[in-house]
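Ticket reopened. Same input as before:
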Amino acid sequence: MADKLRDKQQYELMKSKHIGIGDPDTSKAEWITNVKRDTYSSMAAHHGLAEYYSIGVNEPMQLSKMKFIDKMVQPYGPIEKRK
Amino acid sequence: MAFDSLYLYHRTLQEPSFSVTSALGQFQGKKSQEIAIAKAASIELWKVNSSTGKLSRIVSQDAFGSIRALNAFRLAGSSKDYLAITSDSGKFTVLEYNINTKKFQIVFNEPFFKTGLRRLAPGQYMSQDAKGRAIMLSAIEKNKLVYVFNRDSSDNLTISSPLEANRNRILTFASCGLDVGYENPVFASIEIDYGQFEFNGIDPDSPPKKTLTFYELDLGLNHVVKKQSQQIPHTSNFLLSVPGGKNGPSGVIIACQNFIQYKSPYTQKAFIVPIPARTTQTNRDFSSNYIICGTVHTMKDKFFILLQSNFGDIFKVTINYDSNMVVESMQIKYFDTISICNSMLILKSGFLFADAQHGNKSLYQFVKLGDDDNERIYDSADYFNTSEEVEDVVFTPKDSENLEVTDIIESLNPILDSKLIKLSEQTSRISTVCGTSNNSALKVLTHGLNVEEVVTSELGNTATGVFTTKMTSNDDVDKYLVISFASHSLVLSIGESVEEVTDSGFDVETATIGVQQMGIKSLMQIHSNGIIHLKNNEEEGTQKVNEWFPPAGIKIISCTSTNYQLAVGLSNRELVYFELSDEEQLIEYQERKEMPGQILSLSLGDIPEGKLRSNFLAVSCNNQTLRVLSVDPKNVLGLVTVQSLSSNASSVLLLLMAESIEEEYKSYQLYMHLGLENGIYVKTLINSSNGKISDRIVQYLGPYPIRLSKIKTNFGESSVLICSKESTRIGFISKTTGFKSLPIAYDSSLSYGASFQSEEYPNGLVGVHDDQLYILSLEDFTKEFKIDVLPLRFTPKKFIYYKNLDGNSAYYIAETDGNTVLSAEQNNEQMIYPRETGSWASCLQVINSMDGELIHNIDFENNETLFNLASVTFKTTGLTYLVISTAVDFSFTTKSSSPRFYLKCYKILQDLKLELMHQTKVEKPVASVVDFAGKLLVGMGNTLRLYDMGQKQLLRKAEITLNNLNNIISLKTQGFRIYVGDIKESITFVVYKPKQNIFIPFVDDFVSRHVTSFTTLDYDTVIGGDKFGNVWALRCPEESSTLADEESAGVFVSTQDSYLNGSPKRLNQLCHYYINDIPTSFMKNHDASGLNESVIYTGLQGTIGLLVPLLTQSEIRFFQELQKQLTEQPELMLVGRDHLMYRSYYAPVKGIIDGDLCEKFGSLKQSQKNQIAINMNQSAKEIEKKIVDMRLKFSI
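Engineering reply: fixed in the latest deploy. New output:
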């Protein structure tokens, strides 16, 4: 049993270090939240994507980037707390 | 597997003009400031001439990695700036400009994270301590690193291992370093802690608050601590450091919606001023003012801040403080309006560099600092919090009073659509629509060197030659311009004007073969009946004339000369050689040499520096041979080498050209240029000791004889002017890549040409074509395209080029701006269109492609959006219509609006104007329209629909819904085959069966590519690009292709089992390559000879690239090996990115060679070249030749 405990501890450690690590209990909301955060950050970081979007909506790139990061706060909705 | 392979060689013709950011610094270690610009994947350094206000580029270096942020920093006490860069290499790069090599070189490439532009990778933001002691790198989420700089005992820059300041669940929006003098460095950043929203919903009325967090680097303890956190409004987006130490109160400027605040970690009190609104915006529903860009300028004892709003308005902010550096108030007022910038830089010499986001980057000179105008000032004493509603905080935009443009950098970013337009068999233009909103323009690109027309004039007769000469050997400029006709000549003098002279002493009754200034004061005219030798004595005002005549009945047909030597070819095939004596007498060599054929052309070349004479004489005879004779005194007219040619050489030219470009080891090589009668141009190297010919480079320029002449410019080494009836090119050695041959971007070609140097035009060029005389002035050789600009009204979305049966042609350009009010006002930088949420401003402009005149303008007043357009010739009526897809009350974001979608048909009239026929309502937005089999084919959502022309509206004929697709954004057709490009689901091949009137999708892709644009390479192959910046080529399996075209196969294909929810078969991926720009169009191109095919693409950020097929296995192997060798040169990978990883950013690179990298071979040191040559078992010259061969394979 000690092994299992250590596994769990190690997992928690990894999870705090590396964002987005999942386990069998990862919920859909958690998963999608993580994917969407990756997507928005990618759109803010890749100049081409940010420019493409900003031309489409006719606003300065700087504001588009801010909106992408704003959306990373809660991209999917609240996640249910694990028991 | 020959069917299934395609190898392409990729080369960038025009680098992207988009810039990430820019920085100011003294990179050369001198007093002057230079501007470093970070492009998507390259670094440029520009200098400003402070007396003329002109910008010039010092260097541009490819980084082969995506640059995220750039900063210039300087260690205290030093006078030289370093460049700090973060990129997708996951390394922290420090570069230093090397004055000797004129390039940036790597100081450090410190790895700190995984590669790629990741959420957690520090480097999205870079902020530096004002004293250059430390730099903080921040990721979008969680991670922050601080690097500390120091100096070692020998004064070299050292760098600490990074200190972490990571905080979980923190998102960063902006960061900057505070100016704290020599206290511990402090960094500020705008952050949000999303931890509290993980499990709780966000109340829309109280959105998550942002915080302004200060981090302190404790230099003593060598760690970073979070010093302080203050709440700031949730719309905060912008941060700028305020000068500190002796120069000011320190602290930061934070901007949020409608307000600007001054905050400091040392005081609790914030100073608030509102951002004044445009008077044109009052009472309009639009999401207000933000600050997006700003800069501080510090003068001796004061400083001011310029901030730019999302409208492009610049505000001047001043902070008042007392002698204890305690802030008392802050003031803001309107300053000026310029294009929206990514960064603004103020130079000490009184210039503002505006690194515009879209459109041209500009350099402005400060005329005033806005001190004494009567703009209203808003003071922080009147405003207390950032949530209050302020009224009457407005300004009226006015014409620029404070700034004056002194120079611009022509920029193509963003290119939204482009077409390759063939003007004649020989020449094409790339027409692009660029820019957004009031920066929109139609830019027509002519491939070739920029020239300015100085004079054109009619001569009355067809000229057969043109020559220029100076008066004495000490002159810098030319004195006489001689134009030769069939049986007479015209002598013009060059001064402030060019006019005919009669007292030149030249014989004007015969055709001139050549003119030459010889010795110190002698002037020669070689005409068909003899040689006139003029000796001018200006002091005495006398002119001595000597003449030499060939034997009776014999004429001179060719000649060549240097300052010391002269050789003429006679019509009896004899070659006569002269040298000049010390008394400036022309001495004929005792022996005349008979050549085996008529002497067509002769060349002596240049006299090498420090020598008396040129040692070689090249002779071209009409028996398809070329001889190189020696004119060395030991062996005068002795034969050195003979070459037989494929055709008579109509022109031969020996030229000394710089071999190595680097200043320190400049050396010259003797090159022989040949222009053959069958239109082939050859460049070879002549070994200056034994006259052997090697390293042949061949280019075909069309089926006309070629004439060559030498031209001199003050910005480069000697170059060769290559004239043929249909194209005029200049061959030169480029500073970065070696030999290039580029056309001149001028409407007329030149049959004969010569160099033309006058006081006013030191880089002139004179040429004749039939009976026309042209005098042109060359601009520098760094630009490969000439750009003609026509302003447009709104952001151009798509355009077409249409030519009617009379040969008249026009551009039809669909322009749309979102959230903008349609107004008829002229566009310019100050007149920014009024903005209103949900309002669309659209127009369709018809512009004559010949003279750029606006033929017709249609405003769409019904709140309409334009998506796409096409010209369609309907079989039923036999007439051509313009079909444009539009939407009324459309919104990308709000679902609640009830948009209506239309296809509008316009009849194209005789004068190319449009007349509305009817409009057809459709259910969804139509993103693609195309002429197909005499009908109109549209892509509407995931539906493909065929329309025919009707009286009242379009008539639906056939339709298919492709369930696996989302939104068809591009359609191409060939015969009855349709290539369907989807916004998310790559390309699907569909065949139309006219008998059954059905569409059958028969092959699609196995990867979800987000297609932006594509074109067909052949019937079975497409090449396209996606929005992530990849280029790929896909090919249909042969068996599916033939099956789909079988008349009776329709039922069979359509009843085949679908495979994974798609068509029965999948496309094969032939090529894949990351270009780091979003492709917006692909164009197939044949060069003038028709031998070389290529694909030109344009990218959103202003890239124009070229893909040339590699045809043989040995070529492919050669370039693969060369590429491999070059990736191992660390100095080429400026940011330390692995080249293969970079080009394989999203998917492994396949079938495409990076020509940009191969071209870098020319910029290496000779020792490196030799090492690579040894590794590749070839000589360095052979490698260079192969690279040049690839370069010459392209012309448009």
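The mean pLDDT of chain B is 90. The longest strand of chain B covers residues 835-848. Please confirm and we'll close it.
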